[in-house]
Every structure is written in C-alpha cells, then in structure tokens.
C-alpha cells in the first residue's frame, strides 16, 4: 500500500503524496486563522439606551444627511435689526406694559428686546395755562376773523421736565398763541405742526413727530387773542427719520434741544438733558 505502484518512477508518486499532504495541512492552518479572527470581532451591542447616547450622535442617527461637524450660526453685527413699526415696536408684536427700556447707547434695538413705546401721535393738550398779555383787543372785521399771519402768532416748545433719564418717555408740547389784538384763523393741520428733537448745539435732527405718524388733517382754528392752544406727544426716546424707514435707535445720555413749528413759524429752543440710567 505504501510502496508506489504504477508505470511511472517511484519518486513521482512520492512527490504527489507529499503535495497532497501539504495541501491538507494548509487547509487546516487557514481554517484555524479564520476561526481566531472571527472570535476577535466584537459582538453586536444591540439597541442603545437613548439616555446614554450622546445628543450629537442621536441627531446624526435621526438625520442621515447630518454631518459630524458642529455648525454654529453667529449673528452678523453689521446687519441692522428689523425696522420697527410706526409705533416703535417690531412689526407683528404687541408692546408689553410696565416694562422699562434698556440703557441707551444709540444702537439699533435688538430683535426680541421688550421695548415698549407709546403712540407718538400729537394730541390736543388741555393743561391749564395762563393767558398771554396781548395788545388791545380789536373788533373783528365784518367779514369775520382774518387769517393769522406769522406776525400774529407765537410758537413755543415745552417739555414736562428739563431733566430725564434714558428710557423715560418725556411729554413734549407745541404751544401756539395769538399775540395780536384780534381773533384770527390759522390752519393747525397735523402735518403743518411739528415737534423736533435736535442735538445740542443744534446740528443733527434726531427725531420728529411727523416722521412715523401724524398724517395731514385740516384743522382750521379761530385763535382768541392771548389764549394758548397746545398739542402734546409722548416721545418714546427713540430716533426717527422722514418716513420712518430706518431702524430706530434709543438716544443715549446727553444734552438735547427741542424745537417746534407751525408751517414756517418756528419756536425758540428749549433745552433738556437725558441722564444715564443708574
């Protein structure tokens, strides 16, 4: 059985037997290495508890398109905050009551800042006032009171207090009085009246009662000699521009000037100060 039998030389048959034996040994060696490698692989941990899975990893699992790199969105300080509505609050929001404004720095109001503002429409002011001395009263002509010329009236600018704090809402007033000796008629159209805040000295126009509200409405008044007629507005303390198209900013602490006008009749200056919020 062990001796080679066949027509070929004996060494050929021995060589074939050794090759077959080496093939069998190689097969078993390869099988052993494969089994060892499989045993070294980790077993399936199964579903993980959500509480022990990092939040970032959970988000990647939830969104297969998510990247593993964190993305941080930073606000661009160069971008202005949304333009405020005509009443000074962001469009679509309701001004909360009883809150105070932040300290003023003259910067655009941040989105979401609770910045309540008042209605900046001018309104008749019934604050009792003393009559102004005038010339001797003249009877009205038979055709009725004439139109008031600029020489027949005086226009004044008033503020409820010359000292305010940033964040206050000063009450500003326009006062017109007939200083002539006879009654006269003047158009006190809301668009012809204007209350304006300037810096001090008077160089930059900072706010006007006509920028955001106060549309034109005819208001013919018969002005009695010496009897002041006043209009008031509660100022929000914010800046404005014609048409209210620019972001409004809170005026910082400083010295300011108040001027008023009726058409081209301009008042003298009234000075006031905004102190820093403590």
From TrEMBL:
Residues 44-149 are annotated as: Disordered. Residues 119-129 have a biased composition (Basic and acidic residues). Residues 85-108, 136-147 have a biased composition (Low complexity). Residues 65-76 have a biased composition (Polar residues). It comes from the Bacteria. This is MucR family transcriptional regulator. It comes from Pseudonocardia oroxyli.
């Amino acid at each position: 059985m062990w001796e080679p039998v066949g027509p070929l030389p004996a060494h050929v048959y021995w060589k074939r037997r050794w090759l077959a034996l080496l093939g069998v040994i190689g097969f078993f060696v390869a099988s052993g290495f494969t089994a060892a490698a499989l045993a070294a692989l980790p077993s399936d941990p199964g579903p993980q508890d959500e509480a022990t899975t990092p939040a970032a990893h959970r988000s990647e699992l939830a969104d297969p398109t998510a990247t593993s790199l964190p993305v941080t969105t930073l606000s661009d300080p160069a971008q202005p905050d949304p333009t405020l509505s005509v009443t000074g609050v962001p469009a679509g929001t309701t001004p909360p009551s009883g809150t105070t404004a932040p300290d003023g720095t003259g910067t655009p109001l941040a989105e979401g800042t609770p910045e309540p503002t008042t209605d900046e429409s001018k309104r008749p002011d019934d604050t009792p006032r003393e009559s102004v001395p005038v010339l001797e009263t003249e009877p009205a002509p038979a055709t009725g009171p004439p139109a008031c010329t600029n020489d027949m009236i005086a226009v004044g600018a008033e503020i409820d207090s010359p000292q305010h704090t940033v964040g206050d809402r000063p009450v500003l007033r326009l006062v017109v009085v007939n200083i002539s000796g006879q009654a006269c008629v003047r158009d006190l159209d809301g668009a012809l009246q204007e209350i304006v805040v300037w810096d001090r000295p008077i160089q930059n126009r900072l706010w006007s009662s006509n920028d955001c509200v106060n549309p034109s409405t005819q208001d013919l008044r018969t002005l009695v000699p010496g009897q002041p007629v006043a209009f008031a507005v509660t100022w929000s303390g914010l800046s404005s521009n014609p048409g209210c198209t620019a972001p409004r900013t809170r005026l910082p602490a400083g010295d300011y000037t108040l001027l008023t006008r009726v058409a081209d009749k301009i008042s003298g200056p009234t000075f006031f100060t905004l102190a820093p919020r403590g």
